[in-house]
Backbone:
């Protein structure tokens, strides 16, 4: 959505042949033309992806190359791992590879899996297009598409060969709830064409708790799923949530841990046992509820001091089946969630989606027309917002409050060519005239 402004930035080529940005004045208020339905759907979804980049647990667009690179560490130079077909060669092969042979084979291909074609194939397509050889053009384009389709199919087959995590349901629930909000925005044309960087300051302020809950939940889920991540957090000097320990006795269960953050009475839950995540055990029941994620079957219980230093007695409600010498990673229950049902179930807070200025589940088409005041902060459409904003700027210009010729900007931070800059005199702000009576800096800018 484009709002009407008194000046618009235009990119031109100057007399010396270099690109230059100038400001062109728009005399009257204007509302941007609306996108066609399919273009609007694509723009809305891509802007939702832009907003999702601020969150760790969201992934509206799945880049298969990035997903595969998280599961594979190919041989050879790391720069080659940026190509999907290179990763696929390492992923679907059952025999040992010579990374030099694989690299040479991939680099000599005339087709590439990405959006950009190789130089050789691009020249072939360009030559066919310029020569109006449409048969060759059609064949070359179809070969490129077929290569990409085959590469993606091979990559999917490689990913299907990996074990599917039981936490997939948790991540799917987070993305599903967020996209449900986006679909309501799209249906009502309500705040779905706004980039995250261009949202209102008060909107971004209200998103701070959502970003914090997303970060905390991602940290907890990462520690629950990956043993290496959990150990890194446990060994972090500033960590107060996760701890590594060794079983030094059974009946009763006794643990030894070097952490100085452990204290008597602290309730802890075991996340990893001998390098394996506990949430991946089939006995653990995982549910995604409205306000939290529940894990039933994890061993949790309080710690009690013993006579020996750095040694603790642990009385979990559920027997984890530990033996002397086993190494475990524990988490402070109070720092990651809470236990219910006598310690048999662990609840972790679920991050809420961004529902600011979004239609509610109860909103129906036409609700804003029937009650503009009651639905001004939920299902107010872009069409109404753009029209109101255009009228707002038109009124300000009619009163002379947005005319740079009356009082040009103080500082041209972006170094754009703005009318009135010549009065600055090598950055001397004293050469600027006083603002008109009744006008503020916000009004002028």
Residues:
């Amino acid at each position: 959505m484009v709002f009407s402004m008194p000046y618009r930035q235009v990119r031109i080529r100057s007399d010396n042949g270099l690109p230059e940005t100038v400001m062109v004045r728009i005399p009257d208020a204007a509302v941007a033309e609306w996108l066609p339905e399919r273009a609007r759907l694509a723009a809305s979804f891509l802007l939702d992806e832009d907003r999702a980049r601020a969150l760790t647990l969201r992934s509206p667009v799945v880049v298969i190359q990035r997903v595969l690179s998280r599961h594979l560490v190919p041989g050879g130079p790391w720069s080659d791992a940026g190509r999907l077909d290179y990763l696929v060669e390492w992923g679907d092969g059952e025999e040992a590879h010579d990374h030099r042979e694989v690299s040479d084979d991939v680099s000599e291909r005339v087709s590439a899996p990405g959006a950009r074609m190789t130089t050789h194939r691009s020249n072939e397509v360009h030559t066919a297009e310029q020569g109006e050889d449409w048969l060759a053009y059609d064949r070359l384009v179809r070969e490129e598409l077929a290569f990409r389709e085959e590469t993606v199919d091979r990559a999917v087959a490689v990913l299907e060969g990996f074990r599917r995590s039981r936490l997939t349901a948790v991540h799917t629930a987070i993305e599903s709830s967020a996209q449900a909000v986006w679909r309501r925005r799209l249906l009502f044309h309500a705040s779905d064409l706004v980039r995250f960087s261009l949202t209102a300051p008060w909107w971004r302020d209200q998103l701070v708790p959502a970003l914090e809950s997303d970060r905390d939940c991602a940290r907890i889920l990462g520690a629950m799923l990956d043993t290496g991540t959990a150990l890194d957090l446990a060994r972090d000097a500033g960590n107060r949530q996760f701890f590594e320990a060794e079983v030094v006795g059974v009946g009763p269960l006794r643990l030894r841990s070097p952490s100085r953050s452990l204290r008597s009475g602290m309730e802890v839950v075991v996340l990893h046992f001998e390098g394996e995540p506990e949430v991946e055990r089939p006995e653990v029941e995982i549910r995604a509820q409205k306000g939290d994620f529940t894990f039933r079957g994890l061993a949790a219980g309080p710690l009690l001091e013993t006579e020996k230093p750095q040694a603790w007695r642990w009385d979990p409600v559920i027997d984890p089946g530990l033996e002397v010498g086993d190494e475990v990673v524990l988490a402070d229950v109070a720092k990651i969630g809470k236990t219910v049902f006598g310690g048999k179930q662990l609840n972790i807070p679920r991050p809420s989606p961004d529902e600011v200025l979004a239609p509610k589940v109860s909103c129906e088409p036409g609700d804003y027309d029937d009650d503009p005041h009651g639905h001004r902060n939920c299902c107010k459409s872009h069409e109404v917002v753009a029209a109101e904003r255009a009228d707002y700027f038109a009124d300000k210009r009619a009163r002379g409050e947005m005319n740079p010729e009356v009082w040009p900007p103080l500082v041209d931070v972006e170094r754009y060519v703005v009318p009135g800059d010549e009065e600055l005199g090598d950055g001397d702000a004293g050469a600027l005239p006083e603002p008109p009576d009744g006008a503020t800096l916000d009004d002028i800018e």
In short: Residues 64-160 form one domain. The two ends are 20 Å apart (CA to CA).
